[in-house]
Every structure is written in C-alpha cells, then in structure tokens.
Prior knowledge:
Oligomer: homodimer
Low-confidence stretches of chain A: none
CATH architecture of the largest domain in chain A: Roll
Structural class of chain A: alpha+beta
Number of helices of chain A: 4
Mean pLDDT of chain A: 95
Amino acid sequence: MQDKTDTYSFTVDPFDTDCNNRLSWHVLGTRILSAATHHARRRGFDQFEKDHIPYLWVLSRMVVEIDHWPCVHESYSLSTWIRNYYRYFTDRYFLLLDDRGVPIGRILTIWAMINSQTRMPAELNSIFGNSFDQYIHLDDTVDIRRSRIRVNTPMIQTERSTFYSDLDTNGHVNSIRYIEYVLDSLPSQLTMSHPAKRIEMEYCAESYVGNLLNISIEEASPLLYHAEITKPADGKATTVCRSAVTF
Amino acid sequence: MQDKTDTYSFTVDPFDTDCNNRLSWHVLGTRILSAATHHARRRGFDQFEKDHIPYLWVLSRMVVEIDHWPCVHESYSLSTWIRNYYRYFTDRYFLLLDDRGVPIGRILTIWAMINSQTRMPAELNSIFGNSFDQYIHLDDTVDIRRSRIRVNTPMIQTERSTFYSDLDTNGHVNSIRYIEYVLDSLPSQLTMSHPAKRIEMEYCAESYVGNLLNISIEEASPLLYHAEITKPADGKATTVCRSAVTF
C-alpha cells in the first residue's frame, strides 16, 4: 500500500483562491496533474522515449467531486494511486483530504500515452510490460461514475481564442484551462456565488495557440450544465472536449 | 536583518512552466504576491479594518528583471523586504535566488492600501503609525529603474474580455493576469521562443468581470514593447495599466 499511494500536502496560498476565497479550480487542477507526474516519476514511468521520440502522458478523462472547498491559509493534501490499466489507458484515482486527513473530495483521471510526433496513443503493455502491476492499488472505496455528456440545444454559444499563456509544457492548451473556459462561459452571477461541486471532463482532441474555440452549453437539468468545446479543423467542427458541471 | 527579510522556497512543479519549460510568469507572479502577503502577515500588517470596513493592499507598480529562468524540477526562492514607505505607498523588494542561493532576478513592487468600499487609498501613517519602521531594510544593492511607458502609435490593437477565472480574492482582475494579457497580445512566434527578461507594470485602475479591455502595443525599440490596457468607463477609455516588456 505505501508503495502504491503517495500523498502530497499543500496550503492554500493567498492567491490560490478564486473570488469566493476558495481554492481555485486552476490551482486544484494543476496540483492534480503535478501529483500524477510526481507519483509516476518516483516509479520511473513519467516518461518514455523510443527511437529518440518522446512519449507524453495526456489526460483523457477527469471527474472531480468536491464536498468541501479548502479556504485561504488552510492545509489540504492529495493522495493518488493507480487503480487499473488497459490496452491504451490507465485509471488514476485521487482523494482530496482536509487538514485533519478527512476526505473532502474524490478525483478519477484516465490517461493515455501518446507519441509526441504522431500524437497517436501507444499500447501501454508494449511500453511498460508488467512493470505497472506492482503499483496497482485495487481500492474500491472510491466510487466515481462517468456520465454521457451531449449538447443538443445549446442555451449559450460563445467563442474563445487560445493564447501563449494557455499552453503548458506539452505545447498544447492545458487540460485545466478548458475547465476555466467552461466556467467562464456560464453566467458570472452563478460562478461568482456558487462553487461548482462536480466537474467531469472528456478530452477528445488537442488545441494549440491561435485556435478559435467554440463553446456550447446546455442546461441538462437544474444546476447541471453540459458543455462542448470544438475547434475548426478541415472545414468542420472537431470536438476538443466535453464537460459536465454541477453546482 | 533576520526580522526584516523573509525567504520562501519553491520547486518548479511540472505544470508551473510555460511551453518553453521555464517557470511561467503566472506562477512567478503569484509567488511574488503570496510572498508579500506572508511577509506582511507574519508582522501583523497584511490587513486592516476601520469602522467595519476592510482595507486591502493593492499593487501599484511592479518591475521584474530575470537573468535566468528556473526550469522544471529546479528549486528557487524569493527573499522579500520593505525598502521604504511614503504617505500612500510602500516599496517592497524581492530577490529571486536559484537552488544555490545565487541571485537570478530582482523585483520591485509598490503597494497602496485601499478602502474596500470607496476603493480610495489610505494614508499609511494614519493606519500603521511608526510600526513599519522596525521592518525597513535600507538595502541599496538592488537597483531597479522605472521607466516612462507611453503608447503613441500602436502596432497591435486587440480586445480581451475578462471572466470569472481572471478574478482573485479582491474581486478584481488579478494583477498578474494583465502580464499574460500583454504577452498574449504579442506575436506567439516571439513569446513561444523567447522568454521575456524584464516586465514593468504600472497599475492605474481596477477592472472587473465582464469588462472588455482594449490592449494597444507599440515597439518602443528593438525587443522592447510598450503596452497600454484600457477599459470603457463613462463613455471614454480609462487606463487600467501600462506595461513595458523586454525580450
């Protein structure tokens, strides 16, 4: 167990919060991605290179459920482990813990490893063989369901350009940035007074600097919004990601 | 000296970098603001309240000069102290240090304290009396010049909307976000290949969610850009901030 799960501790710094004085989605999301990288790095599978071509871990799905948001100067931690791996994907779970170690949130992430040149996913078994097996933590206590996200009749349609400051080390728009694009497209009266308590992300394609993204949002049920972000590619709209946000 | 200067240590996390794998302006800027708050908080002058009205520290000027950017997994630290205070403003300096403690950057910040309701600056002496005196560190080794920033004939004019995710705990667009607005308005071929080595910011007015900012940029000399960000107010353009960026 101690070789399978790592825990990273943080404090909410004065500028880690949103305008509601709660830990921001930006900072929480970045901590989740970094914790995944640190956990993988300590076990030697954070990166891989074949024929001088680096392979990159990219996020395919993410579900974040928060019961209680840490506020400024409060401590919190993230525990993470690998729950499973498949042909192309691996499931990584997280628990968000408050300063007493009590769970206040659950996170499911699903990752693929892509060839940095072709951007195509690689078979995990052909890269890592059985070396993952010793790190699989068959924990069933964290139960996170994925849903089907579809936007049929959007109530909001807006555009958003992508810029240099939206990019991360992989040269594409950072996965967490799409969460902000979706929240920013909702009425600010809502986001500035209610913290989102659940966000589900389906990442479908990368976007790059200078893309003009189209964001469509539909109210699937009261306080549940489905969003789809597309980019123009080859004369048609390609889905970049889908999102479901519950307030 | 030990009561005057505090030092905060960090490591460049995998998602703290920009697309060039160097510490991002966003993270460095946030660390600077947080270090200022922590330093003030430990000495009891991070906040003030009078007649049940909170007063807030706001950034008036910032000059950041970076000789060498920390890269992913590298350690760095920020030392900060107060250099002086005037009727309405206080000068706070920082040194950016690499993992061996060698200075790799210098930062000057100038702060005012505003009434959170009227948004008008308060006389520092009337709030803090002489209690600042013991913390003034008369260090002359850090020499940072301010310049005169004017945009007369812009070569770039662009607009940018402000959103929920751009706000900080003060309910206004975060000071560091304007640095990103300016960098994002420059050609991405430049920002994606050259790190800015000096950025100067003059903050003139606040902006809020839903503002449509106008960004004008002029090449003042080769690799030096002057920028002005305005917002519409009372039928005319009000300057929100000015910036000078050197590559």
